[in-house]
From TrEMBL:
Keywords: Autophagy, Isopeptide bond, Membrane, Protein transport, Transport, Ubl conjugation pathway. SUPFAM superfamilies: Ubiquitin-like. This is Ubiquitin-like protein ATG12. Its main location: membrane. InterPro entries: Atg12, Ubiquitin-like_domsf. GO terms for biological process: autophagosome assembly; autophagosome maturation; autophagy of mitochondrion; glycophagy; piecemeal microautophagy of the nucleus; protein transport. The keyword Transport applies. Belongs to the ATG12 family.
Length: 151
């Protein structure tokens, strides 16, 4: 057979393959241009940081409108909409719902936000409302069931 020109990047089978290049090892710690003792200490916060921190603890409104939606065999409430302070925990919502449904201590109620998310009892209602869980009308929709639902 006549020797044909080798394709670029593909070694010929009858010749010894070249030794692959070695990638040098690098130090695990990054190169820091300044020592820690030479770093600058801020004496005041920038204006945008100060304004962001001033509004960080507050809520858009003092009260959150909560709409209760029954799921499955759960009884419907006569008043399906209620207002709650934005600083209250989700356990207060469950306490209110249990009271309105007249549940005994041995009976359960399962609550979900947006038909999928079950918040923890210590979650702040204002945080749930201000995050992505309010509907287009600004209400926090809480679905409730007597048996586990949605997974």
């Amino acid at each position: 057979m006549a020797d044909s020109p080798a394709s670029p990047g593909i070694p010929r089978s009858d010749s010894a393959s070249p030794t692959p290049a070695t990638i040098p090892d690098r130090s695990a710690s990054p190169e820091i241009p300044l020592t820690m003792s030479a770093s600058a200490i801020l004496t005041a916060q920038p204006r945008d940081v100060a304004s962001a921190l001033a509004s960080a603890g507050g809520y858009a409104s003092e009260k959150v409108v909560v709409k209760f939606k029954p799921v499955g065999n759960a009884p419907a409430l006569a008043m399906a909409v209620a207002k709650i302070s934005s600083t209250q925990t989700f356990s207060t919502v469950i306490w209110y719902l249990r009271k309105r449904l007249k549940l005994r201590d041995a009976e359960n109620v399962f609550c979900y936000v947006n038909d999928s998310f079950a918040p923890s009892l210590d979650e702040i209602v204002g945080n749930l409302h201000n995050q992505c869980f309010k509907d287009s009308t600004g209400q926090l929709v809480i679905s409730y069931a007597m048996n586990p639902a949605f997974g």
